Structure formats: structure tokens, C-alpha cells
Amino acid sequence: MKLGRIYLIGMPGSGKSFFGLKLSEAIDYPLVDLDTVIEEKEGKEISEIFEINGEDYFRDLESKVLHEVSESSDHKIISTGGGAPCYRQGIEYMNSQGVTVFLETDKEILIQRLAEKTHRPLVQGDTQKRVDELLKARLPIYKKAQISIAHREVDLLLDVLKALKN
């Protein structure tokens, strides 16, 4: 397998953006944060897009931007939003375009991280209940990733990806 595009997928709060930065430095690939690109294009935060335009609009936009970002070059790391693989055949598209990496994170860690955030529209309210619901719906899709790695095994994954790059 030759390393080209790398898609980081996982639950909100799983560390995709943080790990994307580490990976970018380690293998010298540019990092593209899909949510940041969407916010720049729309001139609004993700939570505002959800509130003003609704989730369907956001999912269409997210899919369109995912395709645009993917097609602009071959060698990059794309940190996706938590829902990107789950809508509009996102996981199938990403698997056909590069290497997908699912960052598995313990539910307790997700709840702790997300309870502190106010800008995540899908986990507002009862954080534990929302995380349970999202995990139930999304885990089967995340499991379609080509590589799954526990958040504590990031250095191991870096070694594997460095080897693939060479």
C-alpha cells in the first residue's frame, strides 16, 4: 500500500485534529481540517451552520468540501468531522481515495472531553446520552476504516505510516 491521502475519522473529541498535527509533523504532509475549511467557506462556525441551515444542509456541504479537498492533491492528511464518514457514502469515498484511520477512544474520555465543549451541536444537553447514541449509530461505519488504532497507540501508528510513506 502506497501512502497518499490519509483520512482521520472518529467521534467528536477523539483527537483527530490533535493527532493530525502530530502526524503532519512526523511525515511532512500538510494537514487539512475539514471543519475549518467548511467554516472558512461559509463564514460561520459549524454550530451556526447547524442552527441556521440545519443538519441536511451541513451534511451536503461537508460531503462537497470533502470531495474538493480530496481532489486538490494526493499527499495530505485530512482530519474529518465526526459525521463525515457516516453520511453521503463518506466512508466508501474515503476508502477509495486513500487510507482511512479510525481513532478509537474510550467512551469515558469522549464524555469528559465533550462535556467541556459548547460548540459541538450534536452533543449538547445530556452528553453521556448523546455520546451513547452517536457511538451506537457511528461505530459500525467507523469500523470500515482500513486502520483502527486506540488513542493511546498513536506512536505505533506514526511508525506504520512513516514506513508506508517510504
Task: Describe the protein.
This protein is of the alpha/beta class. It is built from eight helices and five strands. It has a five-stranded parallel beta sheet, with helices on both faces. Helix 2 (34-42) crosses helix 4 (55-72) and helix 6 (107-115) packs across helix 7 (127-142). The radius of gyration is 15 Å and the shape is globular. The termini are close together.
Spell out the blueprint of helices and strands:
Blueprint (H helix, E strand, L loop, with lengths): L4 E5 L6 H12 L3 E3 H9 L3 H8 L1 H18 L3 E4 L10 H8 E7 L2 H9 L11 H16 L4 E4 L3 H12 L1
Parallel strand pairs: 1-3, 1-4, 2-3, 4-5
Helix pairs in contact: 1-8, 2-4, 3-4, 6-7
**Helical run tally:** 8
Structural class: alpha/beta
Which percent range fits the helix content?
55-70%
- Which outline best applies? globular
Residues in β-strands, percent: 5-15%
Gap between N and C termini, in Å? Answer: 11 Å
Task: Enumerate the spans where pLDDT stays under 50 for 5 or more consecutive residues.
Answer: none
As laid out across the biggest beta sheet, the strand order is 2-3-1-4-5
> Average pLDDT across residues?
88
The helix-strand sequence is: EHEHHHEHEHHEH
From the alpha-carbon coordinates, what is the Rg to the nearest angstrom? 15 Å
Q: Please tally the β strands and state the result.
A: 5
Characterize the largest beta sheet: strand count, sense, and whether it forms a barrel.
5 strands, parallel
